[in-house]
């Protein structure tokens, strides 16, 4: 199981016409000095400055949790939710309210997601609502415990709210108590749904040698940051770096966090890069990392590239390493994480957390992740309504839990050309796991991946918490020597909440090669599936090949052109699973819903028909690469007078 959420979907079709886009005279001021952007995320604890009766109203004068803003009367405690920040607003009661200054960037229709909680022993539900400039925009909403519930937390969704561009005052108002108050509040997410935002593609930026600064273990933060007079700390570089600048980090070990402070611009990324040819180690041993953050940390930034670092020991040697990540990205967009080696982390190696968009994770290696985890985390995970994500060319291996995972509402995700092996050490875990958890999760493509020698399954779709998983395409993957009792690939009925429903719709399995997998080639045993396509796959030496549970409605399955007899692979001893010239898989597939390329990125078809399985026999025409490829990094001229320390990575 991965870190996830719960959601209560309240389909409230409301149109609110705000009467003015003028800047209102504000009696409170935004926390941090800048209004919160809409669309975007507001942490509940980041209410305005101004004090009692101006920025908030609390029924007593004490901060009962005593955290984050201890001199103010709002009650703030630690969050056990696993999303957003480590804090939340708690101990709320009727009559209280919190105010936030927001900047609505575009007039349009928005969905609002409110992350709230209520302890399981409460009787009745708390009631609250949201106001914009004094007008109720949601109607009464309830804090909830029960079916869609994770450690006391769930997501309330309000759909189709119209907001007008401009500066506004948002207010979270507590109306009625349950037996233990209204509840706790983690974050509020505004997502623009109409007009659909125009995409801004992620482009790999070249380092600008004429606008570069340098960091070295032998430097000083009083230096000018040049190659001959480098800074000493990553913190200094992060504080100074602005749009269009590159920070080259010289070889050595840095016992500190790289906490990104500033944003780039669409054509001026900020680049943090290991100096070419040198080994840069960011070692978290003994370094305090807040929960749900990383040794390398991106939070609310835009247009950043992080490249070439070895990131080790996040959460090692500290009093509490819970949810300490190697690399963490939260509430950010247009971020590139490439060519990093992440090893020995308490929790996730790379965490793409709450409400990110346009993120590329490319060419990283992850191993020995989750060493202290107690919540069944993944090694490389994407969560919480993040969207337009691309995960490619990564190697994930020898990890405690799952390899690559998508859970709790991400959409428009591509996972391709990754290698995942030897994951779930000591337990049965999935190589690539697509789990809606408790949210609606959709438009997920999983293709051209290699998954092998796991203790658990290869590639699985599920809905552990009752959220609808839909429109998932799994194709051109090679899976071997995995399975446990659940087979190589498939759809599972697993549950980790009290939800009795696990809906999964519109999932296709096409042109995969599954070999020597315990428990079957493909296993479908979720009775709530709808429109499942199984076509053009090879399932060989994998138990029954196709295992369909009797509870699965036959009318919801389309199964054709699959091969379970000997496909005549080139060499099973060396695991060369290309087809021999006499293979019965050649030209035996169908073109309908088949991918136009194969595992080797060659065009299909090559003969008179489409082949069955991941490889197209005889094809030699490569497809154009539809995704950006990082350009070669220019090599700065080294300073001959600068001493460089190069240390090997020590893996545990």
Textual characterization of the structure:
With 652 residues, the chain is an all-beta fold. It has a domain at 7-194: Sandwich (Jelly Rolls), CATH 2.60.120.260. The chain contains one helix and 51 strands. It has a 13-stranded parallel beta sheet, covered by helices on one side. The protein is globular, with a radius of gyration of 26 Å.
Indicate the percent of residues in helices. Answer: under 10%
The CATH class designation of the domain at 7-194 is Mainly Beta
Average pLDDT over all residues: 89
For the secondary structure, the number of strands is 51
Alpha plus pi helix count: 1
Chart the SSEs and their pairings.
Layout: E1 7-10, E2 36-38, E3 40-43, E4 56-57, E5 76-78, E6 87-89, E7 97-104, E8 108-117, E9 127-132, E10 135-136, E11 141-142, E12 153-163, E13 166-176, E14 184-194, E15 212-215, H1 234-240, E16 246-249, E17 252-254, E18 258-259, E19 270-274, E20 280-283, E21 293-299, E22 302-307, E23 310-314, E24 324-330, E25 333-338, E26 341-345, E27 350-352, E28 357-362, E29 365-367, E30 378-383, E31 387-392, E32 395-399, E33 402-407, E34 411-416, E35 419-423, E36 432-435, E37 441-447, E38 450-452, E39 459-462, E40 469-475, E41 478-480, E42 489-491, E43 504-510, E44 513-515, E45 522-524, E46 529-535, E47 538-540, E48 546-548, E49 557-560, E50 569-571, E51 576-579
């Amino acid at each position: 199981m991965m870190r996830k959420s719960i959601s209560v979907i309240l389909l409230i079709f409301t149109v609110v016409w705000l009467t003015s886009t003028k800047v209102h005279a504000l009696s409170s001021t935004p926390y941090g000095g800048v209004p919160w952007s809409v669309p975007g995320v507001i942490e509940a604890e980041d209410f305005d400055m101004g004090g009692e009766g101006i920025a908030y109203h609390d029924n007593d004068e004490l901060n009962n949790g005593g955290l984050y803003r201890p001199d103010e009367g709002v009650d703030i405690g630690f969050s056990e939710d696993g999303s957003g920040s480590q804090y939340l607003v708690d101990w709320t009661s009727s009559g209280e309210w919190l105010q936030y200054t927001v900047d609505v960037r575009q007039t349009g229709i928005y969905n609002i997601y409110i992350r709230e909680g209520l302890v399981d022993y409460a009787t009745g539900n708390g009631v609250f609502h949201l106001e914009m400039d004094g007008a109720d925009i949601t109607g009464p909403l309830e804090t909830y415990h029960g079916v869609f519930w994770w450690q006391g937390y769930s997501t309330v969704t309000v759909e189709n709210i119209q907001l007008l561009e401009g500066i506004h005052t948002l207010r979270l108002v507590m109306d009625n108590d349950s037996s233990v108050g209204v509840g706790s509040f983690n974050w509020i997410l505004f997502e623009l749904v109409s007009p659909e935002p125009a995409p801004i593609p992620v482009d790999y930026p070249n380092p600008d040698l004429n606008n570069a600064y340098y960091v070295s273990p032998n430097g000083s933060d009083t230096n000018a940051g040049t190659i001959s007079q480098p800074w000493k700390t990553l913190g200094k570089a992060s504080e100074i770096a602005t749009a269009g600048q590159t920070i080259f980090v010289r070889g050595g070990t840095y016992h500190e966090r790289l906490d990104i402070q500033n944003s780039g611009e669409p054509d001026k990324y900020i680049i943090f890069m290991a100096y070419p040819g040198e080994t840069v180690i960011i070692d978290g041993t003994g370094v305090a990392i807040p929960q749900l953050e990383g040794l390398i940390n991106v939070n609310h930034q835009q247009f950043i590239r992080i490249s070439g670092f070895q990131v080790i020991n996040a959460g090692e040697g500290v009093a509490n390493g819970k949810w300490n990540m190697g690399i963490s990205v939260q509430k950010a967009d247009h971020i590139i994480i490439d060519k990093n080696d992440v090893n020995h982390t308490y929790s996730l190696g790379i965490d793409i957390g709450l409400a990110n968009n346009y993120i590329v994770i490319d060419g990283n290696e992850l191993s020995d992740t989750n060493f202290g985890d107690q919540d069944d985390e993944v090694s490389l995970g994407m969560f919480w309504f993040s969207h337009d994500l691309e995960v490619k060319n990564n190697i994930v291996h020898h990890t405690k839990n799952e390899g690559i995972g998508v859970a709790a509402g991400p959409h428009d995700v591509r996972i391709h050309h990754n290698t995942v092996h030897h994951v779930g050490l000591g337990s049965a875990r999935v190589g690539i796991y697509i789990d809606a958890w408790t949210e609606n999760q959709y438009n997920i493509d999983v293709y051209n991946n290699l998954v092998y020698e796991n203790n658990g399954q290869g590639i699985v779709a599920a809905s552990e918490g009752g959220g609808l998983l839909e429109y998932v395409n799994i194709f051109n993957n090679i899976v071997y020597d995995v399975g446990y009792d659940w087979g190589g690939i498939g759809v599972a009925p697993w549950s980790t909440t009290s939800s009795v429903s696990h809906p999964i719709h519109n999932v296709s399995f096409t042109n995969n090669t599954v070999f020597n997998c315990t428990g079957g080639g493909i296993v479908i045993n979720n009775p709530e599936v709808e429109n499942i396509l199984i076509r053009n796959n090879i399932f060989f030496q994998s138990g029954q090949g196709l295992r369909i549970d009797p509870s699965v409605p036959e009318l919801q399955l389309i199964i054709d052109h699959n091969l379970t007899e000997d496909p005549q692979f080139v060499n099973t001893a060396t695991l060369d699973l290309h087809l021999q010239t006499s293979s019965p898989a050649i030209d035996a597939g169908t073109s309908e819903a088949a991918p136009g390329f194969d595992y080797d990125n060659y065009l299909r078809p090559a003969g008179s028909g489409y082949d069955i399985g991941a490889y197209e026999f005889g094809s030699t025409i490569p497809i154009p690469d539809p995704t950006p490829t990082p350009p070669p990094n220019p090599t700065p001229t080294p300073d001959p007078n600068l001493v460089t320390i190069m240390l090997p990575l020590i893996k545990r």
